[in-house]
Amino acid sequence: MAGAPGPLRTYTLLGADRRSYRATEPGTLGGHRRGRLYGRLDCPSALRALARGGYRRHRVFFADEATALAAGYRPCAVCLPARYARWKANRETMEPS
Ligand SMILES: [Zn+2]
């Protein structure tokens, strides 16, 4: 009587608490775990790094931008320049360090 798992494949995404979880929908954003940055799945910078290798094991995915930000990731300056500028401006005004 165990319900069939069904044909749905699952995706490993990163949550706001930076723990991975399985989701039935693919992420909309990619990220780099060590660089703590996120960007578009077709980010030219990320694709170049993936092609070179070494990046893949640090690759993470987010369901949406709010989750990426909540996890402490910053927007990629290459593929999300407007968001990056906004993030940078916010950080400078909100986080005196
Ligand atoms: Zn990017």
From TrEMBL:
Alphabetized UniProt keyword annotations: Activator
Pfam families linked to this entry: Ada_Zn_binding
Domain (Ada DNA repair metal-binding): residue spans on this chain: 32-81
Domain of life: Bacteria
Signal peptide start-end: none
The name this protein goes by in its record: Metal-binding protein
Organism: Streptomyces coffeae
Lineage of source species: Bacteria, Bacillati, Actinomycetota, Actinomycetes, Kitasatosporales
